[in-house]
Amino acid sequence: MRLHWHRTDLRPSDNLALVTPAEDPILPVYVFDPRILSHAAPPRVAFVLDSLDALRDWYRQRESDLVVVRGRAPDELARLADDYDADSVSWAQAYSGLGRRRDDRVEERLAGMGVDAHVVHDHLHHEPGSITTNQGEPYSVYSYFWKKWQDREKRGSVQAPGADRLAAPDEDTPIPTLDDLGFDEPEAEIPPGGYMEARHRLNDFCAEDIYRYDDARDDPAADATSRLSAHLTHGTVGVRTLHDRVVRAREGAPDDAARESVETFRGELAWREFYHHVLYFNPEVVTENYRDYEHPIEWREDPDALRAWQDGETGYPIVDAGMRQLRREAWMHNRVRMIVASFLTKDLLLDWREGYDWFRQKLVDHNPANDNGGWQWAASTGTDAQPYFRIFNPMTQGERHDPDAEYIKRYVPELRGVDADLIHDWHELSPTQRRRTAPEYPDPIVDHSERREQALAMFERARGEDGD
Ligand SMILES: Cc1cc2nc3c(=O)[nH]c(=O)nc-3n(C[C@H](O)[C@H](O)[C@H](O)COP(=O)(O)OP(=O)(O)OC[C@H]3O[C@@H](n4cnc5c(N)ncnc54)[C@H](O)[C@@H]3O)c2cc1C
């Protein structure tokens, strides 16, 4: 007997760790570990519960069942291995520091009982250490990483195990509710989870939107991205299935522009892998700057400004639309994530960790690799980050990427009847004009031009360039 420990691989097919090695009957297990849960938040737990439901149904249709337990992973897995006389436990390799420490403890515990651990790379096409510079170092510049990633052969999807390979547990272990686990209902409407939902979303996206991804991915109103991020984070879709489908879309592309668009999308999949490699080799980045400055960056403390940012009440329409989308949908468009992250760090001059922490609580797709990569990029502290002197202007960003203010109006009802030009000029209007135009919408909480100068000075001091 082999236990398969599901974690962020909540799917039956294209699951390398589930089907490897091939001989033993498999008993699938999921563990709610309080130590891991203490880093979780309602949106993600809700998505996981939904996905577990779908996964359990899949097993039940095959006369098996998912064993769901609560407790410390080393204790629970040791107990189950003992109860079911298992020779081994399989799982997919974790890449974060927290996940790897937990896995080491499990492995040690099992080894003490003579139970083997089969740890398989599954979440990435190319595991950390397999794409490196010619000197064997991990890349810190994405474009070089991408060149190698793009051409490297990728393994194809693998089938789900047949029913004859699955074992049935002796007990019925119900899936707990959010309340059982001590979580509140999420504030946002959480998108449905589960491997079937992921499959539908992937097929929908590859039928049409992937061909306009290049043109439309920076237009938040177009809703033209895949929205597969929560599925990739929780593993309701396998990376090989995704890539195979994307390659088929490329083969069926109607013209060169459509083919190019598919390549742009593949580039985003490579960013995901790039940031997982960065995290693997630098686990401390979840709390520390990747990039050292000569002096500490003097981030400010300003709880009122932080609260205004979290609530979408900054008086910068594109920022507020993004922050309200996050609260409403537990997701935010990528371009707008970049804008709100830049606003937090370069306009409010607040530490990127404040923003990362809020995203961690609110995003359904939060994973430390991508979230941290995104935040440190925006804060100019990361690998291949935005240079500190290139500071987004939130008004021009809004005008360029949401010219008709369609996205803004979707999430900021106070601005619905207002002309797009006035929305994009909100910071230029006098207080009286603002009161007349949209009395319920706040004045800008900071002056962008002033803050830009202060941000430059803050970074120059950190670089030791302030002339002292
Ligand atoms: C400040 C900030 C925080 C972010 N936090 C997260 C996070 O917690 N989880 C997360 O999955 N992504 C995060 N991203 C990256 C990106 O915004 C999301 O992956 C994307 O918006 C998800 O929507 P989608 O699935 O429709 O993306 P698509 O555009 O359809 O892209 C497909 C997939 O490629 C990957 N991807 C796309 N863009 C990026 C990127 N810039 N970096 C790394 N991978 C990418 C994701 O897995 C995504 O699902 C963050 C970006 C920023 C700027």
TrEMBL record:
<dbReference type="GO" id="GO:0071949">
    <property type="term" value="F:FAD binding"/>
</dbReference>
<dbReference type="InterPro" id="IPR006050">
    <property type="entry name" value="DNA_photolyase_N"/>
</dbReference>
<dbReference type="InterPro" id="IPR036155">
    <property type="entry name" value="Crypto/Photolyase_N_sf"/>
</dbReference>
<feature type="domain" description="Photolyase/cryptochrome alpha/beta">
    <location>
        <begin position="1"/>
        <end position="125"/>
    </location>
</feature>
<keyword id="KW-0456">Lyase</keyword>
<keyword id="KW-0157">Chromophore</keyword>
<dbReference type="InterPro" id="IPR005101">
    <property type="entry name" value="Cryptochr/Photolyase_FAD-bd"/>
</dbReference>
<dbReference type="InterPro" id="IPR018394">
    <property type="entry name" value="DNA_photolyase_1_CS_C"/>
</dbReference>
<dbReference type="InterPro" id="IPR036134">
    <property type="entry name" value="Crypto/Photolyase_FAD-like_sf"/>
</dbReference>
<feature type="binding site">
    <location>
        <begin position="225"/>
        <end position="229"/>
    </location>
    <ligand>
        <name>FAD</name>
    </ligand>
</feature>
<comment type="similarity">
    <text>Belongs to the DNA photolyase family.</text>
</comment>
<dbReference type="GO" id="GO:0003677">
    <property type="term" value="F:DNA binding"/>
</dbReference>
<protein>
    <submittedName>
        <fullName>Deoxyribodipyrimidine photo-lyase</fullName>
    </submittedName>
</protein>
<dbReference type="GO" id="GO:0006139">
    <property type="term" value="P:nucleobase-containing compound metabolic process"/>
</dbReference>
<dbReference type="GO" id="GO:0003904">
    <property type="term" value="F:deoxyribodipyrimidine photo-lyase activity"/>
</dbReference>
<dbReference type="InterPro" id="IPR014729">
    <property type="entry name" value="Rossmann-like_a/b/a_fold"/>
</dbReference>
<feature type="binding site">
    <location>
        <position position="213"/>
    </location>
    <ligand>
        <name>FAD</name>
    </ligand>
</feature>
<dbReference type="GO" id="GO:0006950">
    <property type="term" value="P:response to stress"/>
</dbReference>
<keyword id="KW-0285">Flavoprotein</keyword>
<feature type="binding site">
    <location>
        <begin position="268"/>
        <end position="275"/>
    </location>
    <ligand>
        <name>FAD</name>
    </ligand>
</feature>
<dbReference type="InterPro" id="IPR002081">
    <property type="entry name" value="Cryptochrome/DNA_photolyase_1"/>
</dbReference>
<dbReference type="Pfam" id="PF03441">
    <property type="entry name" value="FAD_binding_7"/>
</dbReference>
<feature type="site" description="Electron transfer via tryptophanyl radical">
    <location>
        <position position="352"/>
    </location>
</feature>
<dbReference type="Pfam" id="PF00875">
    <property type="entry name" value="DNA_photolyase"/>
</dbReference>
<feature type="site" description="Electron transfer via tryptophanyl radical">
    <location>
        <position position="299"/>
    </location>
</feature>
<feature type="region of interest" description="Disordered">
    <location>
        <begin position="156"/>
        <end position="184"/>
    </location>
</feature>
<feature type="site" description="Electron transfer via tryptophanyl radical">
    <location>
        <position position="375"/>
    </location>
</feature>
<feature type="binding site">
    <location>
        <position position="265"/>
    </location>
    <ligand>
        <name>FAD</name>
    </ligand>
</feature>
<keyword id="KW-0274">FAD</keyword>
